[in-house]
Amino acid sequence: MAVFRAMFSRTFSAATSPSLRVCVVGSGPAGFYTAEKMLKAHEEAEVDVIDRLPTPFGLVRSGVAPDHPETKIVINQFSRVAHNERCSFFGNVSLGSSVSLSELRQIYHVVVLAYGAESDRVLGIPGEDLSGVHSAREFVWWYNGHPDLSQLAPDLKNTDTAIVLGQGNVALDVARILLRPPSELATTDIASHALAALKESSIRKVYLVGRRGPVQAACTAKELREILAIKDLYVNIKQDDLQITSADEEEMKNSRIRRRVYDLLSKASSSGQTHPSSGQPELHFTFFRKPDKFLESSDKSGHVAGVKFEKTTLKASAGSGNQIAAGTGQYEDLKCGLVLKSIGYKSIPVDGLPFDHSKGVVPNIRGRVVSSYDVGQPVDGLYVCGWLKRGPTGIIATNLYDADETVASISEDIKKKDPASEFASGREGLLQLLENRKINVVTFSDWEKIDFEEKRLGSLIGKPREKLTNWKDLLAK
Ligand code: NAP
């Protein structure tokens, strides 16, 4: 196999043969920051980054909105890491099916799991599986051309109303993509199938629904400002919802972000226009509503026609100091033809990995995987970073600090026990195993061919890139 021979000779041509063999699982921000910091901290280390996708960069490619190109610039930094002669990228290698966790732990001295959160929290209420109800992640993967969901085809044509559940930054992303004039997206790297569907979309009205109040809306000010600035947008926020209590004041005193978000919402609610004009895009911020059930359409069986909400009020929660939503027993229905649940991502465990199902993370102490928090005994050579470590929160740069912490733990452990004393076949071992299993490994130079082709296709139509969106094209390299 070409990959095996090329990589094998590259390993032996290195000035010093590596005595620390490291595998990072996941090539998103957490994975690449970890690789970068490991390479810097340990000159003796060889770091292999594997990813189940044929393309690197995880959330930067599949999660960041197409109209946020500045956020994607970090790809240049990650590419420089991948070009380090002690680093390799192997795509189309899936932890669990191509190679098991126990195999990786035998092959490498150190394994760092940084594969993020590729699933969704669920509400667990009736009607969640109706057609027209999607998670925001699915919708994001669809418009970003993720090969697993390029076929999603959400129906944007047969309704003028979408409900987005949740008020975090992902909720704002999906609402903005639905409401922004498609002409403004045409020069981004949005997947062409999504751009075509958005051009034909009849959705004009988006409800962003939070179970708590405007002080607790989970978004940040910059992202809120951006959506409020959509051209010709009618924004509706009920004055009553903006009434605040002393507990709200206390929350805002403790958080500048909460204060700024609340101030922006207040300003937007009093900006003048009382009714939308015909055809105008509408954004409704709806507060104090928790989803109770999804309503089925009477004329289109199996399809969503709305959401039944229970009105809520805030009450103090013991311990956290935050206010939580409590049902009032009063209900209200909102009609729609599309629902995007934006209530948070969820990590998926693999065989042999300790997992805290209530928090959706791998139990760890400063990045050292532990079998359980109670016992606190680290699992030898196994570490975690990113959303799998701390849950699905934070911006890309948060992973920088997170990787710092995990790499510091690795370094401390290595000082106590020299890994060179134990044989690990590392890169050669992995590639041999993948060759035996006939896995079609995508190297970084294969990715660069994909990258070149995407940019070439994009340049023909005025886009930075035209993404290849299916597995067959991506693996054809
Ligand atoms: P998030 O910020 O945690 O927001 C989740 C939202 O879902 C909250 O409004 C939450 O309300 C609501 N929610 C959770 N469970 C619910 C339930 N059972 N019923 C009703 N509502 C529920 O998560 P996210 O929006 O997925 O974002 C993930 C992370 O990525 C965040 O840190 C975000 O800032 C970041 N991100 C950043 C950008 C950017 O910088 N441009 C873009 C996208 C994402 P409660 O507050 O009441 O729980």
Summarize this entry quickly:
This protein is of the alpha/beta class and 477 residues long.
Give a structural overview.
By secondary structure, the chain is α/β, with parallel strands linked by helices. The protein has helices spanning 2-13, 29-41, 58-62, 74-83, 101-107, 136-143, 169-179, 182-185, 192-199, 221-228, 246-254, 256-269, 387-390, 398-416, 426-436, 444-459, 471-476, and strands at residues 20-25, 45-50, 87-91, 110-113, 119-120, 133-135, 161-165, 205-209, 234-237, 282-286, 289-296, 304-316, 323-335, 338-341, 345-346, 364-365, 368-370, 378-384, 442-443. The strands form four sheets. The protein has an eight-stranded mixed sheet with strand order 16-17-18-4-1-2-3-19, with helices on both faces. Strands 6-14-7-8-10-9 form a six-stranded parallel sheet. Helix 6 (136-143) crosses helix 7 (169-179), helix 7 packs parallel to helix 10 (221-228) and helix 11 packs across helix 12 (256-269). The model is unreliable at 8-15 (pLDDT under 50). The structure holds NADP nicotinamide-adenine-dinucleotide phosphate.
Which helices and strands, and how do they pair?
Elements: H1 2-13, E1 20-25, H2 29-41, E2 45-50, H3 58-62, H4 74-83, E3 87-91, H5 101-107, E4 110-113, E5 119-120, E6 133-135, H6 136-143, E7 161-165, H7 169-179, H8 182-185, H9 192-199, E8 205-209, H10 221-228, E9 234-237, H11 246-254, H12 256-269, E10 282-286, E11 289-296, E12 304-316, E13 323-335, E14 338-341, E15 345-346, E16 364-365, E17 368-370, E18 378-384, H13 387-390, H14 398-416, H15 426-436, E19 442-443, H16 444-459, H17 471-476
Parallel strand pairs: 1-2, 1-4, 2-3, 4-18, 6-14, 7-8, 7-14, 8-10, 9-10
Antiparallel strand pairs: 3-19, 5-15, 11-12, 12-13, 16-17, 17-18
Helix pairs in contact: 1-15, 2-14, 6-7, 7-10, 10-12, 11-12
Residues 123, 165-171, 173, 210-212, 216, 218, 223, 290-291, 342-345, 392-395 line the site of NADP nicotinamide-adenine-dinucleotide phosphate.
